[in-house]
Amino acid sequence: MDIDIIFKIAAVGILTAVVGQILKNSGKEDISTLATLAGVVIVLFMVLGMIGQLFDTIKAMFNF
User: Fold this and answer.
1) Contact assessment for residue 36 and residue 20, using Cβ atoms and an 8 Å cutoff
2) Can you give the residue ranges of every domain in the chain?
3) Which of 27, 41, 42, 50 lies at a C-alpha separation of 20 to 30 Å from 35?
4) Residue 19: is it exposed, middle or buried by C-beta count within 10 angstroms (0-12/13-18/19+)?
5) pTM for the model
């Protein structure tokens, strides 16, 4: 596993938190929630790609 993916996930989290707080303080709680949800979905897709690679590696190890 590369350390870059951890930094990417942390960057998305920090950016999502900042945008969420800015939107929440300006009175747009609904858009803040959507922005936070979008950040979670982006990180989820990043992690799903890694899980797919893990299964491919396991499959190659056991020659299935």
Assistant:
1) yes
2) 12-61
3) 50
4) middle
5) 0.77
